[in-house]
Every structure is written in structure tokens, then in C-alpha cells.
Amino acid sequence: MIGNKIKLNLGKGFRLKKEGTFNLDKLLKEVMALAKKRKYLVQIKDHTDKSEKAGHDIIIVWTLEKNINEYIKYESKIEFLLRRINKTESNVAGSNQITFTADLITDYNSKLKHTKFLKVFGEIYNTFIIRNKIEKHKKKLLAELTELRDLAKLNIDMHT
User: Fold this and answer.
1) What is the Cα–Cα distance from 80 to 96, expressed in whole angstroms?
2) Is residue 160 a part of any domain in this protein?
3) Can you tell me the distance from the alpha carbon of 154 to that of 133, in angstroms, rounded to the nearest whole number?
């Protein structure tokens, strides 16, 4: 295992569902641009497009990574699940679901994993020495993901 994953509990608001018409290209471009502006490395992990009778089923999965320092890293995932998608002029019509998840990774280079002593020291370091710093980073990661979610909401006409 690389590092220690601390899952952020994002709650229900980080799964967007909408049936209707929206501009898919604009949604993807704007969310990608904001992620890059926030200095995330964005990787496309999956992109499938399956043609069905009722329209296309499209799955797009992005991972976002940002190294904060040599010990802390943010990892997020955005999944776009689009069903029964049909093109209309510059928009697409159908059902979409966008899911956001996030983890804060400590010791992502596994420097504190080589011996039992270092492993115990790493647990003490996270629990007592930098606990406040970890909490601040969790809040910052949540704020950045909220900003991405709100932009996605705006693009699919779900008002925040």
C-alpha cells in the first residue's frame, strides 16, 4: 500500500443526477480547466461509449492528483455516467449522473513504512503531531471539490 488513505465523507451532495438537455463538451472542458487551474494532474482512466437502441451509454472516469508537499497528496475521482444520450444541435439529451470522491493521502512515498519503528512513528506523526494540518488539508480538499461540483451543477442546470 502506498501511503495512508484518509477518505473524505462528502455526503449526498456529491452525486449529481439529472435528466434533460445539457452541453456535454462545455461541461467536460470547464470542469477539466478548473481542475488544471487548481494544479491537479488530471488523468482519463476510462472512456467508453456504447451504442444502444435508446441512445448512447457513456462512462467517463477522471482521476485528479495534487502533491501538496513530500508527505501529503490529494486524490479525487470524478465519474460521469451518461445514459440514453442523444445529440441535439450543440447539446446532448439523456440521463446523467456525476459522482465525486476524494482521499487525502499521507506518506504517499512510503518513507515511513520501511521498518516497524518508522511505521509506528508515522502513526504517531499523523495522529498527534500533524493532526491539525491534516484537518486543514481535508477542509481545503473539500472546498476544491465543492468548487468543481458547483461548476458541474451549473453546467447541467442544477442550481446550487
Assistant:
1) 7
2) no
3) 32
